[in-house]
Amino acid sequence: MTEPLSLHYATSSMQYMTPHYQGHPLLSSRVSPFRATTTLTDREYKDLIKTTRYYYRVDPIASVVIDRLAEIAATEIRIKPQPLQGDGDVSDDVLALYRAVAGILQQAMIPIITSYLVDGMAAPQYELVRLMGNRVSGALGRTRYFVPSRIWVRDTLQIELQPNVLGGEPLAFVRVPPSDVQFITSNGVYPNGVKDEKTFRLLLEQYPDYVKKIKAGETLFPLTTPVIYRNLVSSFLYPKPYLEPALEPLQRKHLLHRLDRSLVQRTIETFRHIKAGSDKYPA
Question: Which residue from 244, 259, 255, 257 is spatially nearest to 56, judged by alpha carbons?
Answer without folding.
Answer: 244
